[in-house]
């Protein structure tokens, strides 16, 4: 499947890339069978909807033809969306169905959110609430129109641009939480144990720092290492153009973010080993993200989140390609300041206090329910006793009045054991 880089911008958003086996010898130039690769989640809450829309649109010959001549700007500014009116009827029908399913899913999310906050949702206005979702037209909830495609592309592009920043922020919070827990743990120890544990932690930190030199991402040294150790080729025969084609695994003419990140594995293995206590795999993924951003910043000149062959070859002509600055790994300096850590700890304490208040409220409510349960149980026993006593008095009254025994539930007579008074004894005839 050969697609233009413009459409690949959207495909990279959905991570819907296809992988084919690399032909190391280059002998077979015939078309290879496309093998689906397990897609990486984009992190977008409408990820599945985005993927399915792309897959359906790719089945239409007219849309695919227009796609071949479209550029990145045509896709970003929505001009390609106008072609939606010319796609086949069954494609439009399928897109309508996908949109209705997405609207239904969003309604369920809204209801769950309102229910969780104890908000009255019986009279909620779905049309108004759906406006908070920017990836579809909330005013038309039944059919997929050109505006829906335009909104989907623009929203996904914007969200993806913010996605990396959100990942960095999540990692910073992860590191601060780790440091907070470390300090709290040390506080719980006596002085002797604390000093011993601090020494052990410092030794682990130093051990982690004693790793081989990490080559700058995208430098000739880093690429040559991949060429030799991963590709198994002679380092003296390194060729940037051949390297690009080898690692353009889906043969679409560009290196997307996943293909770029795959190039950093050898460098990351120098620093991180999942078997080592001192190595944190969360830090490894943050390092991988930083490396990819470094290449995008210096190589992706048109900022479409893809590296073309032309961009790649131009980057190899720069001075930084042969003489890059030394790459600083995450252990070189913390990702947060002491002031940020202190604010984070205040936030944690506030959340802990709030959780304690909620727990206490729930405990009190539980005690109240237990007391009410006991009271209801006592009332039940009193009611049962009163019914028994009333039934007994009724039977005694009937017996005293000489009334026939009461009828059962099916009309049968209910007889009571006969009781004889002393004066009612049979008088036997005298002999």
TrEMBL record:
Q: Which Pfam families match?
A: EF-hand_7 (PF13499), NUCB1_N (PF25434)
Biased composition of type Basic and acidic residues is found at: 189-206, 418-431
In terms of SUPFAM superfamilies, this protein maps to: EF-hand
Segments forming domain EF-hand? 235-270, 287-322
Compartment(s)? Cytoplasm; Golgi apparatus, cis-Golgi network membrane; Secreted
Origin superkingdom: Eukaryota
Instruction: List the membrane topology term(s).
Output: Peripheral membrane protein
GO MF entries: calcium ion binding; DNA binding; guanyl-nucleotide exchange factor activity
Instruction: Note the Gene3D superfamilies from the entry.
Output: EF-hand
InterPro entries per the record?
Answer: EF-hand-dom_pair (IPR011992), EF_Hand_1_Ca_BS (IPR018247), EF_hand_dom (IPR002048), NUCB1_N (IPR057576), Nucleobindin (IPR040250)
- Give the primary localization class: cytoplasm
Name the keywords, alphabetized. Calcium, Coiled coil, Cytoplasm, DNA-binding, Golgi apparatus, Guanine-nucleotide releasing factor, Membrane, Metal-binding, Phosphoprotein, Repeat, Secreted, Signal
Signal sequence region: 1-19
| Region Disordered: start-end pairs | 189-213, 384-431
Q: Which PROSITE patterns match?
A: EF_HAND_1 (PS00018), EF_HAND_2 (PS50222)
Q: Name one GO cellular component term.
A: endoplasmic reticulum-Golgi intermediate compartment
Give the similarity note.
Belongs to the nucleobindin family.
Assembly state and interactors? Interacts (via GBA motif) with guanine nucleotide-binding protein G(i) alpha subunits GNAI1, GNAI2 and GNAI3 with higher affinity for GNAI1 and GNAI3 than for GNAI2. Preferentially interacts with inactive rather than active GNAI3. Interaction with GNAI3 is inhibited when NUCB1 binds calcium, probably due to a conformational change which renders the GBA motif inaccessible.
The free-text function statement in the UniProt record for this protein reads: Major calcium-binding protein of the Golgi which may have a role in calcium homeostasis. Acts as a non-receptor guanine nucleotide exchange factor which binds to and activates alpha subunits of guanine nucleotide-binding proteins (G proteins).
What this protein is called in its record is Nucleobindin-1
Q: Which organism is it from?
A: Seriola lalandi dorsalis
